[in-house]
């Protein structure tokens, strides 16, 4: 449903941006600092399926009652410090979060995201090359694990960002027992007829690459009788959920979009039903934000790769 950039052009773009990667050593220190200061319980859990074992970062909220489980799908940079910090933030709102490292076993010496160099675009290439069937199998393992967590209430949703946004939509077309799918600036799969859960989209106004796919996605979901509710945040760039909380962000619209989108996400999770819903797709809505002349930060920008986090 969207035009794919030729591989040669992708590689050329990455090569031209590699000198910026030296900035990565401090780019996400803020995320790691916040994660380290969290009072919530974090653990790594091996998720086994077939002959494969996937490592997952799991965060528990400090609550008295059973909670929904969110399967968090990382950006194209792998299970970064920011992805883990986002998982912790969601747990802070009362949800259990399971964030699988989809690069498990595909890194140097059989490692995962942390095994890749902290600079360069090796992680981006590795994530881009992941087999879609393997990704869905890994996410199935995460969802199956979520269903067995004693502290879970039976509601399971998936939320993905950037590359993970597209995989979140694809997983909604694959998995039948999700309560909702949250897609952050990611494209839809070519076939949406198998989607059973409501899909909520979060898009950036300054992201024509993804924004151009929304009308066709809306029509496809409407024709299939599926619930699709997209919102575009005016002035924000691709990757605004990360950029909007980065202390180095120079586009106010990213922070505005991040804050509004996070509030919307939390509200929707709290309102989730136990069983899938289906209704007609909603027209895309645009949320105005303060304009900025600053260039939009792209989640595919190698300068955003962080030491031990991307």
Q: Which residues sit in consecutive blocks of at least 5 with pLDDT less than 50? A: 1-26, 290-297, 301-310
According to CATH, what is the topology? Rossmann fold
Helix content: 25-40%
Overall number of domains? 1
Count of runs of 4 or more consecutive helical residues: 11
CATH class: Alpha Beta
Average pLDDT for all residues = 86
Explained architecture:
It is a single chain. By secondary structure, the protein is of the alpha/beta class. The chain has one domain (7-304): 3-Layer(aba) Sandwich (Rossmann fold). It contains 11 helices and 9 strands. It has helices at residues 7-17, 24-27, 29-36, 81-91, 122-128, 132-148, 163-174, 208-211, 214-223, 240-243, 252-270, and strands at 41-49, 52-60, 67-73, 96-100, 152-161, 180-184, 199-206, 228-237, 285-287. The protein has a 9-stranded mixed β-sheet, with helices on both faces. Strand 1 (41-49) and strand 2 form a beta hairpin. Helix 3 packs parallel to helix 4 and helix 6 (132-148) packs across helix 7 (163-174). The longest helix has 19 residues, at 252-270. It is globular and about 45 Å long. Residues 1-26, 290-297 and 301-310 have low confidence and may be disordered.
